[in-house]
Specification:
homotetramer; mainly alpha; globular; DNA-binding
Chain lengths: 221, 221, 221, 221
DNA sequence: TATGAATGAGTATTCATTCAT
DNA sequence: TATGAATGAATACTCATTCAT
C-alpha cells in the first residue's frame, strides 16, 4: 500500500516535499478526471484499469503508484463525486432562510446534480452495489462512503427538523426522498420515463411539496 | 440468426414439425430455468454464458441454437420474469372488490415480487439500462420489454381509474409508484436501507395509502 | 473441468467419436511436445503458458481445451516423463538374470535417463517441490506423482529383495540410491561436478556396487 | 554499476570516507538480514526485490545503491550463507581430536545446517543452478561461490587426509558426501522422504560411518 | 543516498462467439 | 441439434529496472 489512497497528513514537510506532494495530488486528480471521462463515455463495463490508464496517458502499471487497485480508483472517484454533491445540496439549502425553501432547494439540487451528471449516477450505482451483489467494495470503503452519502442528504434532515419534524420523522422523510429521487433518476437515466410521459423534475418537486406540507400538517397538529 | 429468439408463428406446420417445435420450446425453457438459477445464485457477474450452459447441461456453443446471443438469453429471462410479475400483480388486484384495495394489493405485490426475487431485480436493472448506458439491448427487444413492464403495472392504472383518477392522473400515480418502488428496492438490495433505519415494506404501504387518499381527495373535489 | 486432464474411459464409443478422441489425444501430445521443448530451451521460468502455446502453434486460450491449467500441463509432462523413465528402468532390469546385474542396470538406467534428458530432471525438480516450497502441486496430483516415481524405482526394490534384503533393507537401499543419484545429477546439471573432478557415472556405479556387496554381506551373515 | 557488489579495497581512505564505508557496509548487511527473513518466510517465489526492499524499510529503487541487481542480492546472501555454513563445519570438526570424529561431525554439521535452515537451501539451489539452467549468475559470481562452497567442505577433506586417504580418495569422499547430502536434503525439503520411510539424519550418519570405515580399510591395506 | 514515478514486458485465466464436424 | 476446438480480445495485477529530483 504505497499508493496515495488516502491523503496523509504527515509531520511538517519541507518545501520540496510540499511541492512533490502537490504535484502528486495534481496527478491523482488528473487520473481521476480521466477515469471520470472514461466512465462517462464507456460506461461501467468499459472503465477498465487499462482504459483509464490510457485515457490518463499512463501505463496501467503507473496507476498503481497513485491508487492501490482499480476499486480504489473507483472509490476515490465516488468519494469526490459525493463531495461535490454535498457541496451542491449544502449551497442550495444555504440560499434559503425558510426551512421549507431549504428542504425543497436541497432536494432539487440533489436531483439536478445526478440528472446533469449521469456518470456520477452510474458510479454511485456501481459502487453502492458492487456489481449488484449486496456488498459494496468489501467493507473497507463502505463505512466512509455511507457517511459521505449521508452528508449529502444532511441539509434535508436539518430542514425537516426546522420544519418541526422529530428525529424519526426527519429520518423517514429523508429516506423517502432519497428512495424516490433514486427511482426517478433511474427512470430518467434509462429513458423509461418516456413510458410514463412524465416530467421528472416536476415529479421531484411535487414529492418535495407534499413532504413539506405533510410535515407541517403533523407539526401544527 | 437461426435461433428461436422470438417464437415465430409460421405457416401451418406438419405434425412432426409441430413436435419438433414443442421439443425446441421445452429445451429453451429448460435453459432459461438454468439461467435463472445461475442468476439467483451467482448474480449478474457470475451469469456468464459458460456457466449458464454448464448449469443447463450444455456446451456454450449449443446455446446458440436456442438463443442468438447471451443478451438474448437475458432478454428472454427478463420477458419471462415480467410475465410472472404481471401474473402476480394481476392476481393481487383480482383479490379485491374495492379499487383502493386492488391498488394497494397490486402495488404491494409488485414490491414483494422483487424483494423476494433479487435475481429478477438484478436482471431488470441490467437489461433496462444495458450496462447503465441508455439503450437497453439495442432497440430490438426494447419495445417489447417496455410493453411487458407496462403490463405489469396495468392493474394499478386500472384501479386508479376506478378510484376516480383521470387518465393523466392515473399515469402519474403509476409512474410515482414505480419510481418509488424501484428506489426502495434498490435501497433494500444494496442494504443501504440500514442507513436510514426504515422498514421497506412499511415505506411502500405508506406510499400506497397516501396515493389512494390523494386520489380520493381530488376525485371528491 | 472440461479439459482432457485425465484420459477418461467412457462407454463404448462410436467410430467418429473414437476418431475425434484419437485426434484430441494427438493434439494433447503435440502440446506436451512443445511444452517439453520450451522447458528444455527456456528453463523453468520461461515455460509460461503463453510460450508453450506459441510453441505449439496455439492461442493461450486454446490450451485450456486440452489442459485445465498451466500446472496441469506440467503435471501431464511429468507423468509422461516418469512413464518413460519407468520403462527405461524396467527394461534395464529385464535384461539381466541375476539380481545384482538387474539392480545395477536399473540404477544406471535411472541415472542415465536424467543425465541425458536434463529437461526431465528440471521438470521433476520443479514439480516435486512446487517452486521449492514443500507442496508439490497442491496435493491434487501429488499422490499420483509419488506413485509414478515409486514405480520408477520398483525394479531396484525387487532386485534388492532377490539379493536377500528384507523389506526394510530393500526400502533403505532404494532410498539411499535415489538420494545419491539425485545429488549426483544435481551436481552434473549445475556443472558443480567439475569442482570435485569426479566422473558422475563412475560415482553411480561405485555406489551401486557397494550397495550390492553390502546386501550380500548381510544376507550371507 | 555504482553499487557495492564486491567490497572494493581502494587506495588509503580518509577518515570520513572510512566512516561512510562503514555505514554503507552496515546498511548492506541490514538489507541482507531483511532478505534472509523474507526468503525464510516467503520462499524463493515470494522473495521479490520489492518485498525485500519493503522488509528492509526501503524503496525498491534504494536497493540499487547497495546492490546492482536482484541477483546480486541473492548472491551476497548466498555468500554470507556459505560463510555461516563454513563456520559451522569448521567448528564441528574443531571439536574432535580424532579424524574420524571430525569427519563425521563436519558432515553432520553440514547436513544439520541446511536441514534447519531451509531458506539457505532454497537459495543455494536457486543460485547454483540459475533457474536450473547451467550457468549460475553469468560467471561473475560463480568462481567465488564455488570457492566458498569448497571451503565449506574443507574440514571433511582434511579429516579424510588424516584418516589416511590420499588426495584423490579424499576428493572423492567429499564429492560423494556432498552429493548424498544434497540428495537427502532435497528429499527432506520436498517431503519425499516420507515415501521411503527413512530418517534422514540416520541416512547421513550411516553414510559417514561407511565412508570412514571404507577409508580405514583401504588405508590399513 | 534515497524517493516517487514510470515503464514495458510479463502473468494466468476468462469471455462471448464461431465453425467444422 | 450438439460438440470440441479455436480465436482474439480482455482482465487486474506484478516484476525488475531506470531516472529525475
Amino acid at each position: 500500500m504505497t499508493a496515495n489512497d488516502s491523503l496523509r497528513r504527515r509531520a511538517p514537510a519541507s518545501a520540496p516535499a510540499k511541492r512533490r506532494q502537490a504535484v502528486s495530488l495534481l496527478k491523482r486528480s488528473l487520473i481521476l478526471d480521466a477515469a471520470r471521462a472514461v466512465f462517462e463515455s464507456e460506461g461501467l463495463e468499459g472503465a477498465s484499469l487499462r482504459s483509464i490508464a490510457k485515457a490518463a496517458g499512463y501505463t496501467p502499471a503507473a496507476l498503481y503508484f497513485h491508487f492501490s487497485s482499480k476499486e480504489a480508483v473507483y472509490a476515490a472517484l465516488l468519494a469526490e463525486s459525493l463531495d461535490r454533491l454535498k457541496a451542491a445540496t449544502e449551497a442550495a439549502a444555504a440560499g434559503h432562510d425558510d426551512a421549507a425553501g431549504a428542504f425543497r432547494a436541497a432536494g432539487l439540487a440533489f436531483f439536478t446534480f445526478y440528472a446533469e451528471n449521469p456518470g456520477d449516477l452510474d458510479l454511485g450505482f456501481y459502487l453502492f452495489r458492487g456489481g449488484m451483489k449486496p456488498q459494496g467494495l468489501g467493507r473497507d470503503f463502505d463505512p466512509g462512503l455511507n457517511g459521505a452519502l449521508a452528508a449529502t442528504l444532511a441539509p434535508l434532515g436539518r430542514a425537516a427538523g426546522q420544519l418541526g419534524a422529530d428525529e424519526a420523522a426527519g429520518e423517514r422523510l429523508v429516506a423517502e426522498f432519497f428512495a424516490y429521487a433514486v427511482g426517478v433518476l433511474l427512470l430518467v437515466h434509462t429513458r423509461r420515463i418516456r413510458m410514463f410521459g412524465q416530467d421528472p423534475r416536476a415529479m421531484i418537486e411535487r414529492h418535495l411539496d407534499l413532504a413539506v406540507s405533510g410535515v407541517r400538517r403533523v407539526a401544527l397538529g
